[in-house]
Amino acid sequence: MLGAAWGQFDLCGGKRGMARYRQIIVEGQPVGLLGLDDVFKDLQAQGRHPQESDLGMEMVQRLSRDNYIPPSARQGFALALTHEYAAFLNRAEATTASGKRSYGTWRGYPREQIPWYPIVDEDLCDGCGVCLKLCSVGALQPTDNGKVSVADPFACIVGCSSCANVCKPGAIIFPPRSILDAYTIKPPGRH
Ligand code: SF4
Ligand code: SF4
Question: Which overall architecture, per CATH, does domain 105-191 show?
Answer without folding.
Answer: 2-Layer Sandwich (3.30)
